[in-house]
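In response to reviewer comment 3 from the previous cycle, which asked for concrete evidence that the modeling workflow produces usable outputs, we include below a single protein chain processed end to end. The sequence was submitted unchanged, and the resulting structure tokens are shown without manual editing.
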Amino acid sequence: MEKTENIDSFISGFPADVQTILQELRALIHREAPGCTEEIKYAIPTFVLNGNLVHFSAYKTHIGFYPGSSGIAHFADRLQQYKLSKGTVQFQLGQPLPLDLIAEIVRFRVGENLAKPAKKQKKS
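The workflow returned the following structure tokens.
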């Protein structure tokens, strides 16, 4: 995948069915994290609210969702059916996304980030 400047161009690089999933995930994150901003970091869509909140991407066989290690640990009992790593969960393509669970994870991460001291803005 080519390097992209924004999330719209990132999503447009995938097949239509995957684009639909990524747009649904994007909308869910914005609903659960009002005021978050979008960036491309680590070459993938990143949602920022007082620091990195969550990231996502798409691959040949799955959607990668990155709520960080705390998000995975906090919901580990409910994520057991998915392939996990320290800060990542993989949702297989062809299976419905667990939208209610993802929403809970995003809200959890919002709470964590808002509890931290405000990040200083970088000077341009």
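Residues 69 and 87 are 4 Å apart (CA to CA). We consider this sufficient to address the reviewer's concern, and the full set will be provided in the supplementary archive.
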